[in-house]
Amino acid sequence: MFSTEIINIYGQNNCEVEFNVNIKRNDTITIFSIDKKTKKYWTQNKFENICIYMMIDRSLIGYSRINKIKDVIINDGEDFYNDSTLDKLNLTYSNLWIENKYLNTDFDEWVFLSNETSLNNLNIPFLYSKPSTISDKKAINPKDYWEIKNDNSIRTLYNIETLECSGKWLKIKIKTNKKEEIGWMPWYNFCPNILTNCHHLPVDGVKNEE
Question: pTM here?
Fold first, then answer.
């Protein structure tokens, strides 16, 4: 829960990062003002699943502010919300806050499951101590998390959580039963929107975002 004390201690980070949020049938996500005086509940019971693509412009530890809702995809691409519906959603939810636990990227997809990081052809990203490529860094080797060969079961072995964002950087926690890593990654390690062509270049210094 927000409080003046928390805001004074941690402050707010300005950021420009895109996430997706999934709402399954009959699920409810609470979206609120920073003082919690306004609460709105996003519930949908019409579709099996909707996937919301949104831009975030501010972040606190555990929470992020919605800047704009860009797209809503229904049932894994069967249909889309039209522009009029998107305009209404933006009027309803823009400038309100959402818990980071709902925010997804496709980092886990391409690092842990895709051919880009196969055992024979690793393209290893780094975790940085600060949101800067000149800070201390540690390589994240997907092989460290591959305890079995069945790709369909890999998702059960780890959890990736978004903690906060700053600029175009995300602070994430990667956790398994055996280990936990926390650090910052630049925007080019993530691809949250299936509608875009994300060109991953997780090589130190190739795209320098301070």
Answer: 0.79
